[in-house]
Amino acid sequence: MRKQIAAANWKMNLTVSQGAALLDDILKAGLSLSDHQQAIFAVPFPYLSMAQSKLAHSGRFAVAAQNCSNKKSGAFTGEVSAEMLHSMEIGYCVIGHSERREYFAESNQVLAEKLDLCLENQITPIFCCGEPLQIREAGIQNSYVETQLRESLFHLSQDQLEKIVIAYEPIWAIGTGRTASTQQAQEMHAHLRAVLAGHYGDLVAGRISILYGGSVKASNAAELFQSPDVDGGLVGGASLNAPEFIRIIASLK
Ligand code: PGA
What we know:
The protein has twelve helices and eight strands. It has an eight-stranded parallel barrel, surrounded by six helices. With 253 residues, it is an alpha/beta fold. The protein has one domain (4-250): Aldolase class I (TIM Barrel). It binds 2-phosphoglycolic acid. Residues 9, 169, 174-175, 213-216, 234-238 line the site of 2-phosphoglycolic acid.
């Protein structure tokens, strides 16, 4: 079975002591995940070490960065490189979240560079894609998201592609409380998998975990995750609340 993943995206929230308390509360639940399941916490850069030390002996819980630079190293004040993350043994990095695309003008090309640097540094990118509301209303979401994949991913070899995780996050559903319906999520995930299959073949496409993100909460996670092409979720708001996120992890297939 493909890896099923519940990924928390804390964004720019919580102080370090609040973050530590949240992880403690989640660990106290004593969730036992099976071999094909994983929980990932994408925390702010300054909290990476804290999260790592909390989760070190927790089995299937991993730490992710929320972003990295598209430059290898050098005079880029304030940036954090994939190599730095690798040197801290960070195994995952969110790439191309819609907030990065929108507020920091990250293009598909820049994201392709970030993906390459993650892969060079043995970091699994969680590559985000998804359409804004006006694209969904115009009914052209499939081709919009397909372009995001083509321009950022299709230069990767088959071996490299197999090392990434994709998160489909319709922008109109992020932080709005307006979740995509289970049918909308499944339709888009099946489309994304078909796009990958068209370029890399069915076998490879079938191995890629595709997470859904956008107002996932404890009350809708199980239904969303049951869809055959939905392999878990990337969760913002609801990941800041321990009982909510515990239930979301427990909803993985
Ligand atoms: P949300 O955010 O769960 O608060 O909608 C999801 C995300 O942006 O990753």
